[in-house]
Amino acid sequence: MMTESDSLPTLSGFDQAAYERGLKAAGIGMWEFDFKSAHASICANMARVLGMPPRFTVLSPSEWRARIEPVDLPYVEQLLKLAYTKGKPYRVEFRARRETGEIIWLQAHGSLVRDAKGHRVRLTGAAIDITEKKSAEDALRLASERLKLAVEGSGEGIWDYDLPTNMYTLSGGLNEILGRPHKSAIHHANDWIRITHPDDVERMLSALRACIDGATRTYRCEYRIRTRDGVWKWILSRGVVVARDEHGTPTSMAGIVTDVTDKKESEETAWRHANLDSLTGLPNRRHFLSGLEAELRRAPRQQTKVALLFIDLDGFKQVNDLFGHDAGDLLLMEAAYRIRKSIRSSDELARLGGDEFTVLLKDLRKPDHVEYVCQQILASLSKPFTVGSEVAYVSASIGVAIAPVDTQSGDELLRKADTAMYAAKASGKNQFGYFSPSMDEKTHSRLRVAAELRRAISSRQFTLYYQPVIDLHDGHVVKTEALLRWEHPKLGKVAPSIFVPIAEETGLMGDIGNWVFREAATRTKQWSERAGVAFQVALNKSPVQFNQRYMESDWLQYLHELDLSPSSIVVEITEGILLHASSQVADKLLEYRDAGIQVAIDDFGTGYSSLAYLKEFDIDYLKIDQSFIRGIPANPGNCTIAETIIVMAHKLGQKVIAEGIETKEQADFLIQAGCDYGQGFYFAPPVPAEQVEPLLSRRYL
User: Fold this and answer.
1) What is the pTM of this model?
2) CA–CA separation, 16 vs 459, rounded Å?
């Protein structure tokens, strides 16, 4: 048996007891292995590590082999053999069994000792208990495996980035996200950059550098990558620095990648719903106003002006009502395209709703540019629109407000451009106009009219005037045209040209039209009974009244209650309604025909050149517009037009009514031309209902 003094070297200048205490505190045991006898000598500390009595001892081959776990013994013996035969360094980790039966992990290091002749005599070394270290490694490995399984189960990808080699290792679900097989996994950083969207590369690299340089603790970036089939996916990549060299320089990063395409698409959809018009894809009111305010803040710094164009389509409601909403949508999309082609790419176009568009002209330095753009838009929108199998015609009214001249507020600029647009529409449509302070007064007046119009029926402010229609063959009054009048207690007489468009826009035309019908039908019943002959009344019907939103009351039922023949009613419509009539219009006209209600085309010849509708629908009367009567008989052109309409109508089995007759010469010419009926101030102006009855017995010719 070795003694302690034999087994431990004497260290000059060191206290031997302190040396032993240090070994004990560090849990280090000293050992020697004799190649010739295969005995192992261990010191007191080594004995303590193995749970043996703390004394020096020599273990026989069978004794030290019994201390090593059988599964590790062949490996330990193999390394001992290599150390002896090859002179290789001895380093091994193995499991040993203590006296109590507890299994511990040991890490042993040894060096070769030779005798004076150079023969290999023994190994001398040390061993340390690494059980806790091994337990920690096992726990870490288990946690890592669990994390890997969790990440793979969630479909997320794992990446490791070796900075010195600029190489990536991809695992988990990353290859599935990329749509690439594992064998073609991307490894070099440049390969990753190549599949990153060009617009996102700089942002991704900037975020990565910030983490590597220590500007941020973690790396986080959302960007797009191209999959194997060429589809762009949105990913969220997160990572941290996991290793540094002796100088503190990052050498390795690790992180995960999550496919966030669905989330980004949901966010994009939500943003589009909040900011873009669903039909045209243009900015909506909310988004436009936000951009407008930003531009109004920027313009003063650039010393430029901003022009806001408010565009409203003239006649769109009629197209929508006559052809249906699908046709209206097609027209709006085409109108948006035409307006966009009329402005610069730097200008902004938005749809506020309905048939209203706005254009923001930026960096306005030349005032005449506004006029140029307005003319371009008007010209493009005045061309025919093909909507499905139909052809529709609209125009535009444009209002212009300029900042900072008119205002520096976005809301105010929009309001003033809107005001200017209504002024342009009131001036005849298909034109543009600039805002002026005097327009505000007109706008306030219009708003007041709209508010008062809602109370006009219930307050009995409406009345009907009737203009006699004369039979030009015998000079008697055979029918009248009912004309709506509104006299407000404070506003006074309000012209139909003012309140009728407002009634159409505010949805009141249906109620007003029903009131007009009942009132006129009741009067017609009275006059027919007192005159002893059948009498007719003509009612103007607005195009919007053919829309289902303006459902008419049961006219036929009311006529039945009055015991009044439906032939006593003539419905006057404009030829624009019939040019490309929708199914709603056709069905309603068919209903009138079957019931016996007659139909007249008002202002004939002023709207469209196509006369095909005269063959498709049962039209009873054509009314020659007063613009053709004016100038007869001095104007040969007007005479020819009037005569042609009369001949054509008679060939088609229709009667003709001439409007606006003001002189005897006009009446005589029309009688000679064979016109059937006439009305105008030459015979009688529109009069209240009470004054109609005395006119029924009068002979005008």
Assistant:
1) 0.48
2) 121
